[in-house]
From TrEMBL:
Keyword Oxidoreductase assigned: no
Protein name: Zinc finger and BTB domain-containing protein 6-like
GO MF, one annotated term: zinc ion binding
InterPro entries: RegFact_GeneExpr_CellDeath, Znf_C2H2_type
SMART domains, A to Z: ZnF_C2H2
Keywords: Metal-binding, Zinc, Zinc-finger
C2H2-type domain boundaries: 6-38, 41-69
């Protein structure tokens, strides 16, 4: 069985044994202790990663109203006759594929700046008669990159707001109480003062119809979509 080569973190030298690589680092690069890559702690609700458990715990308190890291989840299969609870969006997509024969289509796109991303987002919302709402504020990862997650506005449970009471009385809540798999995951990378946006766009909606009456748009745009 062929052994995997162990590469020096500071040059192109490779070794078959870790102890030889460590000796090389001490003798050639004068490095006494190699720093280990920090183990990331991941939120089981929204998949955001953090450099340590303390940051994860604070995130749970602030954004998920949870004072502990107990495994409560708001992710539920969107089908009426299925009550399966999942702990990540990835597990939801796997469940839909295996149990319901639904493949959630993924498209990956890169935009040169935030304005291009916002223009594209408005375009797909009109084309698909849907909306994507920011789940929480931007999360800065340990390497300075910003992550944001936008969920289908029909997903999850209703949060009380005085602005939507009239719509709720006429049509019922927009929220289906379950989790539509369609979402946007954005990674914002700033280079020389310009922020590029990498987007993962899961296109497939499940568990609800796409109705114009449930969108927060003005009369002119509503007529154009219709």
């Amino acid at each position: 069985m062929e052994k995997t080569a162990i590469k020096c973190p500071d040059c192109e030298a490779t070794f078959t044994l870790k102890k030889n690589m460590y000796a090389h680092c001490r003798n050639i690069h004068k490095i006494e202790h190699l720093s280990k890559k920090p183990k990331m702690s991941q939120c089981h609700i929204c998949d955001v990663k953090f450099a340590n458990k303390k940051c994860l715990s604070q995130h749970m308190k602030t954004f998920h109203n949870n004072s502990t890291n107990e495994k409560h989840t708001r992710i539920t299969c969107p089908y009426d006759l299925c009550e399966e609870n999942l702990f990540t969006s990835l597990k939801l997509r796997e469940h839909l594929c295996v149990k319901h024969n639904i493949t959630v289509e993924l498209e990956e796109i890169t935009f040169d700046n935030l304005k291009e991303f916002e223009t594209w987002k408005q375009k797909i919302e009109k084309e698909t008669v849907s909306m994507y709402v920011l789940d929480t504020g931007a999360k800065k990862l340990f390497n300075g990159i910003l992550k944001q997650y936008y969920f289908c506005h029909r997903s999850l449970n209703y949060r009380k707001s005085g602005n939507d009471l009239r719509l709720m009385k006429s049509m019922g809540s927009n929220k289906i109480g379950k989790t539509c798999p369609s979402k946007l995951e954005t990674t914002i990378v700033e280079t020389n003062g310009v922020a590029s946006v990498n987007v993962k766009y899961w296109k497939t909606h499940c568990g609800h119809a796409q109705e114009i009456g449930r969108l927060k748009i003005d009369k002119e745009n509503r007529a154009m979509i219709a």
